[in-house]
Write a structure and sequence with these properties.
The protein has a single domain, classed as Serine Threonine Protein Phosphatase 5, Tetratricopeptide repeat. The chain contains 19 helices and no strands. The termini are far apart. The relative contact order is 0.07.
């Protein structure tokens, strides 16, 4: 699908209620708006190519119309999306903050700007009260903004409120039923809540509608692991890795190998990845692999690295089943305290 087709499709599927606030905060330049939509679309593909395209399109939109506030908010969110996957958080998130501040200067009442601030507070600063404030502000300004419900729900999951998280993600999906990003996160929230059968159905539904969407395969892998279906989980992770070979999918594959009894293969997968220092490797993703191998001290060393580098997924430590084998260790509770959780 071409970028112009993607942009037209996104506009066509927005309801009139959703298009109206976009138009108020938008641009009179059709090329800038099309690039904005392309950037938003590609940022949610969770592939290296997608992130690179997203950043390019959003920067093009800003170059075309430097007063386009939504484009700066989109750029902030794209840098967040790229963090932990193609960019280290300490490189990506300051850029996200700078873009969000520019959006504020251009339009202080922009709801999407407050989503960006909520993302930064919850995913990087781990400032839970600030995140709550920003997401609530967003929802008061734009109660039908799907991404506001999506990210507010994920923040509620981080602090342990999976019931509210699932409700918010259901609301987001109702507002944007075509979003694979929302569908995959809904399956993940159900997984965090240990509602594995529902989680698996949702993940499979997401794959049915978007067979190229890698995070849905990873979610499927996690869910099947939790259900002790190790061979099926390994197959799902191999599919994800075949579609997008990245440190994230590689470490998910290593964990699946370990849980399927292929411990030597898992260790080799990790070692091969660690020989590629040019790639950002999340300490959190590494920690859960070490935990699956019973290498507890190495797992906590990796979690400490995740804390120092502000690895995003560490914010889900309180609820993630991948960390269950570490919960009885006193170091686990100490780390939750450091996170303010």
């Amino acid at each position: 699908m071409s970028g112009s087709t993607v942009a037209a499709s996104l506009v066509r599927h927005l309801s009139g209620e959703q298009q109206s606030p976009l138009a108020k905060r938008s641009t009179g330049n059709a090329a800038a708006y099309a690039d904005y939509l392309r950037g938003r679309y590609y940022a949610t593909r969770y592939t290296e190519d997608g992130f690179q395209k997203a950043l390019t399109y959003l920067e093009n939109a800003i170059d075309t119309d430097p007063a386009f506030a939504l484009a700066y908010s989109g750029l902030a969110d794209a840098y967040y999306d790229a963090s932990n996957l193609i960019l280290p958080p300490n490189q990506a998130m300051p850029r996200a903050k700078a873009a969000a501040r520019k959006a504020l200067v251009l339009d202080s009442a922009l709801a999407e700007y407050h989503v960006s601030l909520g993302l930064i507070a919850s995913k990087y600063d781990w400032n839970w009260s600030e995140a709550e404030k920003e997401f609530r502000t967003t929802l008061s300004l734009a109660p039908n903004l799907a991404t506001a419900h999506q990210w507010y729900g994920l923040y509620r999951a981080q602090i342990g409120d999976t019931t509210r998280a699932i409700a918010e993600l259901h609301r987001a999906q109702g507002l944007d039923p075509l979003s694979a990003d929302i569908g995959s996160y809904l399956s993940t929230a159900l997984y965090w809540a240990r509602r594995y059968d529902e989680a698996l159905r949702q993940a499979q539904r997401t794959i049915y509608f978007d067979p190229a969407y890698v995070p849905a395969y990873i979610a499927t892998c996690w869910i099947l692991e939790a259900q002790a279906k190790a061979s099926e989980a390994l197959a799902a992770c191999r599919q994800a890795h075949d579609k997008e070979a990245s440190p994230w999918t590689t470490l998910a594959l290593a964990r699946a190998e370990a849980l399927a009894g292929q411990r030597a293969a898992a260790s080799e997968t990790v070692q091969d990845l660690l020989k590629s220092p040019s790639q950002f490797i999340s300490g959190y993703d590494l920690a859960v692999v070490y935990a699956s191998l019973g290498r507890v001290d190495e797992a906590f060393a990796a979690l400490n690295d995740a804390f120092q580098s502000r690895a995003e997924w560490l914010g889900y430590l309180k609820i993630d089943p991948q960390a269950d084998s570490l919960r009885s260790d006193p170091r686990f509770g100490a780390l939750l305290q450091r996170l303010g959780l």
